[in-house]
Design brief:
Largest sheet: 4 strands, mixed
Radius of gyration: 28 Å
Order of helices and strands: EEHHEEHHHHHHHHHHHHHHHHHHHHHHH
Mean pLDDT: 87
Shape: elongated
């Protein structure tokens, strides 16, 4: 959340840092626009109302923060900004009941404030003519209204407002997290549409901006809507990343190269282009770009992690662990370094230590299906099949494709886990017999373990369900070649050229055909 960094620290309360966001600079002209004061006295009252509004938000967030501390969750900071407040926690509370307490604490403080302001207002003398008592009466009446509106608005059952979080925690308490996500999304969407309609009718542009943030948050409850939201945002602001997400790697590289030419001192384009090269199996180019990214921004988390990934691909697991650990030292509250450390420890057979890191990654809301899949592999090796299958179910609910398949550079993760793969994919195919992703994933696992005939059978079944997927022909062709069936391999590589216009896939197929015709005995990988 880079926008949170655009703030000023003004102090600490109970060990919690308090920040005022730069967007609050707009609050003064907005206050003037709302109140239109005609005198210094009126302006002073308007400023006092603004100060009371901001303090009400701060106390609301302090309610969340203190409740989080009660359930042993670290509170990093509170940020008060133009559209409300935000309490940044070190991790999500582990249990739904704990989240329920934290979520309800803020509105509870708000209604207590409203009651306190009403008590003061009630006991003020009843004076109708202008005086300082009349001014205070007006001020406290405004603060009562503000806190009632804050309470009602925050208690609307729309995610991620407190009411929506309370609904989610209650649903998770009774039905589990996946069902809670679905129910909360179904409840939230009609209310969001109502708020949008209200904003359009009243021409309340602040409410409409708030609705945009609410819509983005709701999209995180479902993997498919989150994917489309990310696509939309990247299409508008990071076109290279958009094409990367769409799998158009050559177009992504082209756009990122243009961006590098325009802004050669920015690290992110180099880092994103390096990720493209990794997926295109061009590791030397990836290394060069990543080196440049780290020179420009040595503390960039994604660059540090990607350097670890490249060492992992090269099977230099100790070096990979060093880079993941460096990322963790610089970004201790991020989930991804824990995940990186966990996969290295899993490969090295340190399953219990790996599980601890996987658990930390999940508690920090990593949100990636592959984390649950990898953790299921560790559970499987430790003989905890129930926990393994539970993780696999969670991964499938997040994203079928990401739970069942991996990019080719990551296939080495299957090595030594053929028994796990047969259990996992067999279980999936019992539930989803027409899932070509499951056949592809099991085929990849068989190929990684040199069971080429089994791999060919699974790729063939996947092709029967999705004959336009070029990667299936590519990997089946490699399996045919490894199995000594040269003519079948050539047929598959020619088929790649027939079904795809993606340049990097065509280059792979053409390179493999050239190697075959040159008499090489075995494809790499």
């Amino acid at each position: 959340m880079k926008w949170l960094k655009l703030s000023w620290k003004i102090g600490r309360i109970s060990g919690v840092e308090i920040h005022l966001h730069v967007s609050l600079l707009l609050s003064i002209p907005l206050t003037y626009f709302i109140f239109r004061p005609s005198s210094v006295r009126d302006a002073l009252i308007a400023l006092l109302v603004l100060a009371g509004f901001l303090l009400s938000i701060l106390f609301h967030e302090l309610g969340h923060a203190l409740a989080a501390k009660l359930v042993k969750v670290e509170v990093k900071s509170i940020v008060v900004w133009l559209l409300g407040g935000f309490t940044l926690l070190g991790r999500e509370p582990a249990k739904p009941a704990q989240r329920l307490l934290v979520d309800f604490a803020g509105p509870f403080v708000t209604i207590l404030l409203a009651a306190s302001f009403f008590a003061v207002y009630y006991f003020l003398p009843d004076i109708s003519s202008p005086s300082w008592i009349w001014d205070f009466s007006t001020l406290f009446a405004a603060l009562i209204l503000i806190n009632i509106v804050l309470f009602v608005f925050n208690m609307l059952p729309v995610y991620p407002l407190d009411g929506g979080n309370i609904v989610h925690a209650l649903m998770e308490l009774f039905f589990g997290k996946s069902a809670a996500n679905l129910i909360t999304m179904i409840v939230s969407l009609p209310i969001l549409l109502g708020l949008i309609a209200l904003g359009l009718y009243t021409r309340d542009f602040i409410l409409l901006i708030f609705c945009v943030f609410i819509a983005l948050a709701i999209s995180t409850l479902n993997a498919r809507t989150l994917h489309w939201a990310n696509l939309g945002i990247n299409y508008l602001f990071r076109r290279g990343a958009y094409h990367f997400m769409q799998g158009d790697l050559d177009r992504s590289v082209q756009l990122l190269t243009r961006e590098i030419e325009r802004k050669p001192q920015q690290a992110n384009p180099y880092m994103f282009r390096s990720a493209c090269y990794v997926h295109m199996l061009q590791n030397e180019k990836a290394q060069a770009d990543l080196q440049r990214a780290l020179e420009l921004a040595p503390d960039n988390e994604m660059s540090l992690l990607l350097r670890g990934d490249l060492h992992f691909i090269d099977r230099d697991y100790d070096s990979a662990l060093e880079w993941y650990d460096k990322a963790h030292q610089l970004h201790p509250k991020s989930a991804l370094p824990y995940y990186g450390c966990a996969i290295v420890k899993k490969v090295k057979g340190e399953f219990q230590a790996a599980l601890e890191d996987f658990d930390k990654a999940v508690s920090l809301r990593i949100g990636f299906p592959i984390c649950h899949v990898e953790r299921s592999m560790a559970y499987f090796r430790l003989g905890n099949l129930d926990a393994a299958h539970k993780d696999q179910e969670t991964a499938l609910l997040l994203s079928e494709k990401d739970a069942l398949t991996r990019a080719e550079f990551a296939h080495q993760a299957y090595e030594g886990y053929l028994d796990w793969a047969e259990d996992y994919y067999g279980w999936v195919l019992c539930k989803r017999p027409r899932s070509w992703y499951a056949y592809q994933g099991r085929g990849d696992a068989c190929r990684a373990n040199r069971e080429y005939e089994k791999a060919i059978l699974d790729y063939t079944k996947a092709i029967g369900l999705n004959p336009r997927e070029p990667r299936l022909y590519l990997t089946r062709g490699k399996s045919y070649w490894a199995n000594g069936e040269i003519d079948c391999a050539k047929t598959d590589f020619h088929q790649v050229l027939a079904v795809t216009a993606q340049p990097y896939l065509r280059r792979q197929a053409e390179g493999l055909l050239e190697s075959l015709n040159g008499g090489e005995e075995h494809p790499v990988g």
